[in-house]
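Materials and Methods. Structural model of Lecithin:cholesterol acyltransferase. The 324-residue sequence of Lecithin:cholesterol acyltransferase from Ancylostoma caninum was retrieved and submitted for structure prediction as follows.
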Amino acid sequence: MEANLTGKPHVVNPFCLRRTTKYFDIWLNLEELLPIAIDCFVHNMMLQTNPENGMVSNMPGVDIRISGFGTSSAVEFVDKSRVAPGMYFYLLVENLVKWGFRRDVNILGAPYDYRKAPEELGEYYLHLRKLIEKAYVDTGNKRVVMVGHSLGNIIALHLFTRIVDQTWKDKYIKAFITIGAPWAGSTKALKGFTSGHNFDAPNIFLPPMKLRPGQRTYTSLASLFPTRMAWRDDEVLATVGSTNYTLADMPAFFTRLEYEMAWKQVLRLGTLDKTLPAPGVRVYCIFGVGLPTTSRLTWTNKSFPHEQPKEIRGEGSQYAIISC
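The predicted structure was written out as tokens:
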């Protein structure tokens, strides 16, 4: 993701720029996560919510675009410096190349704005559809195999069930490979809203509380909230002190958190009761089995909500209870 600051009306500290002359790398850019710089990064990446319809947009004076759409490099590393912490699909692409595939010919990437819920990606689906159709033609009318990871699977499912019809899928799609799909949501979303989530990096290097203000504005977290597919209404999802909170108790939880906007977004997106409609294409699921997976978060009265919770783990695919 790249950003251009066109004249921010205010900044969070004097070291933050109000204006830039060109686009710069913002995600992932490890330099943006350094002390002081991280405050500017978080504020630049925040979304503002329209109170009338709940839709989100970039902060005033911030223009963010997705770079490298259609190229393999855009998904091989999320950091253009190509250092290990930013490695993503690189090893998969390297092996495909060894088997005769070619970067930017029949290995293509479709990066997206991870801050937004699938329902809010708008024109992205038009670009994705055109990319698939072009790949089909450029490779001699060969159908496309789509590979998704994590939230990318939810986005692909939205394409298959809300954007294109069965005739289109039959013509252009050979298969859909899902990797670690959080079909039923994840406790990581609740953790992000409450205490911040730092992608399991050491807290001393990437403090979750620094990231929390931005994450609270991301509707993608609301779309990944735990659902009734994996949690019963009477099943404890979070505990603060001696008080247990189930899915049915979440309104009270967010009132206690003093951030009810997150719950409003969960309700607006219909996340709790979402189902798993058939995509209408051949599906192959890749997922972890028997891995420690967080099913419940606990805070003491003193640690809530500004400290990281204790995570009670069951079995799953590490990040999601249900991945296939």
